[in-house]
Amino acid sequence: MTDTAIEIQNLVKYYKDFKALDGISFSVKKGEFFGFLGPNGAGKTTSISIITGLCNLTSGSVKVFGHDVVKEYRQARPLIGLSPQDFNFDPFLSAREVLIFQAGYYGVPRKKCKARAEEMIEMFDLGQVYKLDYRSLSGGQKRRLSLARALMHQPPILILDEPTAGVDIELRHFLWDFLADLNRKGTTILLTTHYLEEAEKLCDRIGVINKGQIVKLENKDKLIRSMAKDTIHIRIGTPWQEFNWLKEFQYQREEETGRISFFENKENLSKILKHFYDSKSEVIDLEIEETTLEDVFLQLTQKKQ
Ligand SMILES: Nc1ncnc2c1ncn2[C@@H]1O[C@H](COP(=O)(O)OP(=O)(O)OP(=O)(O)O)[C@@H](O)[C@H]1O
Ligand SMILES: [Mg+2]
């Protein structure tokens, strides 16, 4: 097996005349937790549908652990567990049957399917509902069932298309811990989400897609750092002077409050403090406003509008 879990090259997708994917290329490394972010309609679900063979590509190629998703569909597809954005359970099956059928579909022996289904029911707390028709499941239960179903055949790659959309805080935290643990144990995960806090917490690398194009692909911390514009607010207890060293920095001083705001990354904090110290100014208050992934995301996607 190669060390690349998913490799996408120059992928183009047209829906009739509409170009939904405009030549995207990126790969997801084995063992990675990859965040695939972008505004509504950017092309995330389309990409996922192509990776999982649910939708045809127009041109380009996608490989899953070296297997072409079109030419080697049979080898590629079982390597992925998918929890789709929209629920697509057979309305005539119980939750338990959904799980057993899924594993059977991927060739897991019947006895093993049943044991695994019990394990998943226990893990995702579906014990109260497994005898019921899936139509009576709550939104949160459906999300849990969708994840359980994706994991039934123990795939090396898990793709989650907005797994925490509309779930309550308790379940969201459970899912975060669960996914982080699964990834630590070796499962490669590709996740789309509109909760940037989620991507910030879980992902190693982040790809941002906008209007069918990848606009940024970077290690999460690097992405934030490269676009970061932290602000360091300082108040001094000694009289204000226009020190010469201030020219090195971008700053603004509010006359009324005496607050000095440095538009500098927090890496420069000790440098700034040392200058104040050397010029015998007493720093009496300090506050840092850090850039978040949300700020970065807005910068990236709005620029292209
Ligand atoms: N079956 C289809 N037929 C025609 N157009 C489609 C089809 N599916 C998606 N599209 C269009 O392709 C574009 C990308 O849609 P896609 O569902 O991939 O976006 P997304 O990034 O998943 O968005 P969201 O965050 O809203 O889920 C959108 O403009 C959408 O309207
Ligand atoms: Mg989508």
For CATH, the homologous superfamily of the largest domain is named as P-loop containing nucleotide triphosphate hydrolases
**Structural class estimated from helices and strands:** alpha/beta
Assigned CATH class of the largest domain: Alpha Beta
Low-confidence stretches: none
CATH architecture annotation name of the largest domain = 3-Layer(aba) Sandwich
**String of helices and strands:** EEEHEEHEHHHEHEHEEHEEEHEH
Kindly estimate the percentage of residues that lie in beta strands according to DSSP. 25-35%
Number of strands: 14
* Small molecules (ligands, ions, cofactors) in the structure: adenosine-5'-triphosphate, magnesium ion
Largest sheet, order of strands side by side?
6-7-8-3-9-10
The CATH topology annotation of the largest domain reads as: Rossmann fold
Apparent shape: elongated
Tell me what you see in this structure.
This protein is α/β, with parallel strands linked by helices. It has two domains: 4-225, P-loop containing nucleotide triphosphate hydrolases (Rossmann fold), CATH 3.40.50; 229-289, Alpha-Beta Plaits (2-Layer Sandwich), CATH 3.30.70. It is 33% helix and 27% strand. The strands form three sheets. It has a six-stranded mixed β-sheet with strand order 6-7-8-3-9-10, with helices on both faces. Strands 2-1-4-5 form a four-stranded antiparallel β-sheet. A hairpin with a 6-residue loop joins β12 and β13 (260-262). The chain is elongated. The model has no long low-confidence stretch (mean pLDDT 91). The chain binds adenosine-5'-triphosphate and magnesium ion. Residues 44-45, 85, 161 line the site of magnesium ion.
